[in-house]
Amino acid sequence: xxxxxxxxxxxxxxxxxxxxxxxxxxxxxxxxxxxxxxxxxxxxxxxxxxxxxxxxxxxxxxxxxxxxxxxxxxxxxxxxxxxxxxxxxxxxxxxxxxxxxxxxxxxxxxxxxxxxxxxxxxxxxxxxxxxxxxxxxxxxxxxxxxxxxxxxxxxxxxxxxxxxxxxxxxxxxxxxxxxxxxxxxxxxxxxxxxxxxxxxxxxxxxxxxxxxxxxxxxxxxxxxxxxxxxxxxxxxxxxxxxxxxxxxxxxxxxxxxxxxxxxxxxxxxxxxxxxxxxxxxxxxxxxxxxxxxxxxxxxxxxxxxxxxxxxxxxxxxxxxxxxxxxxxxxxxxxxxxxxxxxxxxxxxxxxxxxxxxxxxxxxxxxxxxxxxxxxxxxxxxxxxxxxxxxxxxxxx
Amino acid sequence: xxxxxxxxxxxxxxxxxxxxxxxxxxxxxxxxxxxxxxxxxxxxxxxxxxxxxxxxxxxxxxxxxxxxxxxxxxxxxxxxxxxxxxxxxxxxxxxxxxxxxxxxxxxxxxxxxxxxxxxxxxxxxxxxxxxxxxxxxxxxxxxxxxxxxxxxxxxxxxxxxxxxxxxxxxxxxxxxxxxxxxxxxxxxxxxxxxxxxxxxxxxxxxxxxxxxxxxxxxxxxxxxxxxxxxxxxxxxxxxxxxxxxxxxxxxxxxxxxxxxxxxxxxxxxxxxxxxxxxxxxxxxxxxxxxxxxxxxxxxxxxxxxxxxxxxxxxxxxxxxxxxxxxx
Amino acid sequence: xxxxxxxxxxxxxxxxxxxxxxxxxxxxxxxxxxxxxxxxxxxxxxxxxxxxxxxxxxxxxxxxxxxxxxxxxxxxxxxxxxxxxxxxxxxxxxxxxxxxxxxxxxxxxxxxxxxxxxxxxxxxxxxxxxxxxxxxxxxxxxxxxxxxxxxxxxxxxxxxxxxxxxxxxxxxxxxxxxxxxxxxxxxxxxxxxxxxxxxxxxxxxxxxxxxxxxxxxxxxxxxxxxxxxxxxxxxxxxxxxxxxxxxxxxxxxxxxxxxxxxxxxxxxxxxxxxxxxxxxxxxxx
Lengths: 396, 327, 285
Fold this sequence. Notes:
The complex is a heterotrimer.
Chain A: H1 2-20, E1 33-39, H2 46-62, E2 66-67, E3 70-78, H3 83-96, E4 101-103, H4 108-121, E5 125-127, H5 133-138, E6 142-144, H6 149-162, E7 168-174, H7 177-192, E8 196-203, H8 211-216, E9 223-227, H9 232-243, E10 249-251, H10 261-267, E11 275-277, H11 289-300, H12 306-325, H13 331-339, E12 342-345, E13 348-352, E14 358-359, E15 361-367, E16 373-386, E17 389-394
Parallel strand pairs in A: 1-3, 1-4, 4-5, 5-6, 7-8, 7-9, 9-10, 10-11
Antiparallel strand pairs in A: 2-3, 11-15, 12-13, 13-14, 15-16, 16-17
Helix pairs in contact in A: 2-11, 2-12, 3-4, 6-7, 12-13
Chain B: H1 5-27, H2 30-53, H3 63-79, H4 86-108, H5 113-133, H6 135-138, H7 158-180, H8 183-193, H9 195-200, H10 205-231, H11 241-254, H12 260-279, H13 284-298, H14 303-315
Helix pairs in contact in B: 2-7, 2-10, 2-11, 2-12, 3-4, 3-5, 3-10, 4-10, 7-10, 8-10, 11-12, 12-13
Chain C: H1 2-32, H2 39-57, H3 60-81, H4 90-112, E1 128-131, E2 134-137, H5 138-160, H6 162-172, H7 174-180, H8 184-206, H9 217-232, H10 237-258, H11 265-276
Antiparallel strand pairs in C: 1-2
Helix pairs in contact in C: 1-5, 1-8, 1-9, 1-10, 2-3, 2-4, 2-8, 2-9, 3-8, 5-6, 6-7, 9-10, 9-11
């Protein structure tokens, strides 16, 4: 019996060990300041998730690894562009790593899911970049660092009607919630200046053949409004060029592509002359941008894309808020510090309003013949919650 | 019922595992607890799949969609219609999943083998597409958010919900076990081995398969309900072909036709994904894929049967003069 | 009018690429009974490698051959290394090929990065023709021609050559074939290899109608290929061709005239065929 009991104990011990194995954070000073980062490193948002993380790392390095004299720990995890994985990683960051604030993610679905948990655990989440409407309205600890999706589309609508003189538009967008919000934002801005949307088309995400939609677009319209996230843009622009469509392209958001000089090289001259709102432009003459671009180029060898800039800013916001509230402050004080935060960033002057939506300087770019996204206009959009809906206006 | 020593020994690892799971919240941190909750939920889904996949040999690639029907029904009733009472909503959602399963079975059971696989794949994707396109009800690509913990009159903490899930999963597992060990359950295996003979013996095999599929769908639905409460949100991406494929993999890795193998498979996949991604955030899918391949080479038939074999070797007395006093 | 014409033509161009990918899958399934979930990943492997070679060398033909060869080699590795012991064990095949999909996708992420790869268009074919208000690329027309030409060639091999007869015999009745003295083993391996080569080649030339190659290509392709095999029937060139073109054109027209409905086209076709003619349009009962 004895030998047998021993075996039982061994099996039992192995099971216990297996279940209790969790990576212990390396022994660190008890007073380290911890910031968490959740980025899409695998999955369909992988290209831009990686950029965002790289931007965030530049911010951490510029801080020198310390914040207010205390060691600064930045713990990043992969959200895999997947909601359950994002939730698991967020729980780990909050409950195991004990971070005070989280930067990211990009994927709207993850943001939504995390919002409820963030509320419960009182951990501010600084999204990269913009948040979706439903998320902002319901979750009180989510901070949209780059406005809402609609607030990004809004200035493009205004610009198209006012400055480019377009009176009518037809839209093609990927059938994601974000796509609907970007294009709705454009419509709000466009119609506020007398424009009219003639037709809206939505294609199933993952479609690689845009030709059916491009040929169906009413060519009477003055412009073609497209939202092509990520890899859709590659098919979209190439096929637009192939068909020789006359309507100029106007984008309420660049999908992480048009504002990205690296991507434009792949797209070639199909993208010349297109206008787009971008989150961030490496050409913007904003505070600290030259230094950021130089540091980013030195570390990674390429110019920073819009998401890289967004990652940088969101991380800076996190650090600044902790500085303002104090490293030993409560979570509630941290939240208060964030709401009143005013910073001069590479996104221009940035501040959060009481609904936790940021106003920043939104650049509008036009792609030059040299494939450079040149800034042609800048807008600052104020987002206010009125009667459960969000209303937009421009700051003068 | 009297158990002799031999029977007790056979069940020991299972009992030990259950004890560990019950005691877990005391010494495991909450992110691991949430991982365990997820494993239990998907383990239940995998077990429901095994009823048709392993025991009948019907390769269903649409179980994530059945799971999704209940999950969406649950979410829609709670979010859109404000009906929150768990004892009202859960049965309705399970019913929805069972009806969907009946419908799918009615179409798909006309064929078998690879064609069954393909048609369930297509049907499952159709359900996913409907969820995606019907934005008014299902929330489209964004899905439904902010679903609270089940409303049964008590306040749930993370640990509380974990126990809720653990109890339901174990009860469902035991129910499925008894279902499969019943005469009806054995007839299902008979159909897998030789359907023509079963027909010759007078069984209405179509009806057996249909009933089994509906039962399987109902349990998949239970998992779907737990999932909405666990995650707080339900989106189309969690119920598409890739998700269905992953459930199949869980069953295969754990061991098809073993029922509990599904739970083991879910555990292996999620534990691996989680821990490996902590070590290499970018390369973990590669390692996961390699593990699938390794499982086929080294654990043919699934991990659960291998574990059973191992345990049997542990408890079998060594050869020699048999001593009845020895364990 | 020109809208309809361009829509249909673009559907045909997607369709012929799908045909090349699905034809291989169909024969592997019919002859070896192997469910190769990694077939879509073969397309991706050939595409990434072949396009890079084409861009570097300036020759589409070289790129196509390189892509085909690499895909074929990977398939050979998969078959000889792992699948050879799993004949008839369908579940294990699914598991192994599923694992390979993860592995191949991640290796591509590692080697090539996450950015999509744009297609290589040979400069001599970069012109266009005018159809109404639209321009239509000459290269796309050439791809349509290539696909259409491949069809009768493969059909001729299937129906009129000895090797085709042996393959069809192997599909219909492997035991009988063995009795006659036909050694199916090397035939099976050759078919598996060839199927992957064609898929890899399809990836290289198909990148253009597909708007570029990305890491999700493996998953997209395998589902569409399965849909084609279901609609067209297993083990038939004419089935693969008809199914692929049907799906391609219907999806395109649905996108133009019904926008959101486009997503349902492959499923409707699959389910309709499975209900009314389960063996597919050209499959054997």
